[in-house]
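User: quick one, fold this
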Amino acid sequence: MADSALLQRTELPRPNVTLADARVIFNEFYGFSGTIRELGSQQDRNFLIDTGEERLVLKVTRAEYPQPELDAQNRAMEHLRNLDLGLRIPEPIPALTGEYIPQIEVGGHYYWVRLLSYLDGEPLTRQKYLAPEVVASFGDVVARIAGGLKDFRHSGLERELQWDLRRAGPVALHLLKSVADQKQRDRIAKAMIMAVKRLQPLASELRIQCIHHDITDDNVVATPNATGRLMPDGVIDFGDVLYGWLVADLAVTCAALLHHADGDPCFILPAVKAFHARYPLNEAELKALWPLIVARAGVLVASSEQQLSIDPDNDYVLGNIEHERTIFEVATSVPYPLMEAAILDAAGMLPDEPELTKSHPLLPSLAPADFRLTDLSVTSQDLPRDTWSDQEIDWKLLARAAMETGVASTRYGEFRLSYTKPLSQTPPATFALHIDVCLPGATEAFAPFDGTIILDGHHLILSSPELSLHLDGIDCSLEEGTTVKAGDAIGAVAGAAGGVGGLRIQLCRDPDLVPPLFAKPQQSAVWRRICPSPSTLLGVGVDAPAPESHALLERRKNSFAKPQKNYYADPPQIERGWREHLFDVNGRAYLDMVNNVTILGHGNPRLAEAVGRQWAMLNTNSRFHYAAVAEFSDRLASLAPEGLDTVFLVNSGSEAVDLALRLAWAHRGHRHILSLLEAYHGWTVASDAVSTSLADNPRALETRPDWVHPVLSPNTYRGKYRGDGSTDGYVQAVIEKIAEIENAGGQLGGFIAESVYGNAGGIPLPPGYLRDVYALVRERGGLCVADEVQVGYGRLGHHFWGFEQQGVVPDIITVAKGMGNGQPLGAVITRREIADSLEKEGYFFSSSGGSPVSCVVGMTVLDIMRDEKLQQNARDTGDHLKARLEALGQRFPIVGAVHGMGLYLGLEFVRDRETLEPATEETAALCDRLLELGVIMQPTGDHLNVLKIKPPLCLGKESADFFADMLEKVLSDGW
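Assistant:
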């Protein structure tokens, strides 16, 4: 039992000291005056004073706590301050008498008082989300403090403290009498008993030293890094410092992190890995970590309930008790073997998986050659369209696979697409820890090893100390508790002989655990050790091949040119899409909010069928005579304004822009081209020449050829001229640039611009800007090119072409991307006389741009857009989404503006709405956090501070709301 003095301390209320009392203490004992407010504490009283020059913390402690214990805390802080730990530590400050721990009397009660320097920064307890980087930093901070205290000695460290996890069991049981809820009291007691039971055989190997024992999200202070993310860099509150188990220091921290974990106990693993990297733990300590976390959780809840029973107005406890209840729920939500294996794995100390052996086959009458395996993975060809969403699809495919031989099985260790969950902020459990077998009814099953029969309805368990076999679908005549030998009959598959039966098979190494059928991808490696494959029992391999995403990424890096970048530092391996959803090989669904190439959405069956038909008949180039090229050219010309009646078909947007510039040169013979600063038009030599986006080419401004003349970016949000009255200023900049060209003896060939400022996030051009600039260009014989590659083709919703918003008609339209839904396809639409100008330079064709397949793709895309009213959907869903985003701008100062229309929107983030300082690093971190929540999003713009929102036009309102909700979550909870 815990000592009586210790148990008496657990019942002490806080010192009865008011703000007025604290003001007197500050003044009379320390000579300070200033504004004072109380800080939270469970059993002390803490006050913050601001003198105007510095901030200090007064700590008032009951006299029942011996003075040497408080001196040990002060000395520990001084000891750490003298070390080069890279952490901020409070400094003890003496009273006017020179004492560091004077005793005072207030209201007839004696207390100890201490004064410490105040560490600026923020605690993290109210920060809902902590990034893995922050979690790892917690572990590193704990390790640095523990390493610094390793050789610290003081008589006051031999303490009797309720938080000492060596005493957690008896302390918690003592505190439980204050828990009014009988059910909760029983749960805490059961959890504590189990934790202590697992700790007892490990205790002798747990190292003891001086530890802080309270490095929690309340007791670190953090400052923002470049991304705006709060990173721990200071440690406060040494009130629990003592001699204790080294690993208990980490356990306290990990327990505190669990209320940020969103229900995932593996959230703590970066902290474990970081601690172990700096201060290695032994195997016993790693195995003790999770039981200690559970013990800490139990003590926290019981202590808070007890404290409120004696001090019901304790705001500090009231503010934390829900967090502590969450910690307890998460800590007790998973089996010990899972977390023990996960912790050992994080530390790189997980032993090799023991080999699975059998003495007798489970189903000896089935020939291995008869087994047929289903494919329920993300890459399965048996799951066309959205059939994966059929709740019965697994059994349907299993029954179909069994038709040939009568025996079929699902695959163990397969990430099943059929268990995916679109629009889910957390990855679903998709990793199969079992198999389902379709086989003849009445097939006999035999014990593969010695064990005891356990029956739970139709669920049979063959249990042994090392391994348990879980079976569903067996008729068993044996009684509960029957002991069987390997090779003994244990039952037969339910169903009549000659009929069809079903059998579910699962193994588990923990005899006390009823394992889940599926595991979440991030826990799959550990779960598969606990629930190994049943292949050995069947004598046939039923394992699915494991994804090799990281190896594949390395292959890409080795053979794929480096300038061809990929999204994200650690990208998911995407192998399937459906409408606005993408799926990685782990069965995780992502909402695709960036893919303006697939305008119809992914996996469109109508388009796939049309392409398949044409591929089966013919694919060649446009120099041959076939119907599709004429039909598609007619369709495109009919979509353009009157007079733009001639079409070139090309492979891409870059090629379209390149050709448009050649047409401008050829038509008048003038070389000089006006373009916009911050614009992007493509990657070919000519299209890149008129692109000045620093995000795409940091050296863009210093590498333009002499025929390119960028003009001032008409960015009405952050440009030189802003708002509705900015048109004249930007037009004047064009006039001045034209004058420069003409004064140098040059002649203007043309002007190219996106009709909406796409690369900046869909910012509309100033009213009348294109009207005035087009007139200036045409007066000088130049041609006006509207680059509609990103913004046109119905994406704006309210207009099919972006230039319609400005009320102008260009001389040349370039279009690509969405018109092929991913097929290499682009077009240049112009007047006949302009097109004919190219004859001066010879003839033109594009290998795949006008091919039969490309033309069929283009026509089918237009048909689907018409039939499914995708432009109208872009308008309606886009307007809805924009309203949601604008509402976020009312709440979060980092939202500077919402640009664009339809489903081409830009959300611009700034650090200051007055200076418009770009929130570049924050935007990158926001995108990484959105990926974790199941949203694909990337930054754009010269400052990479704009979310360019350009999803497939089939985006539904539910999906739009999910995106807005996840964005709101990130902005609210942090990134």
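User: anything notable?
Assistant: The mean pLDDT is 94.
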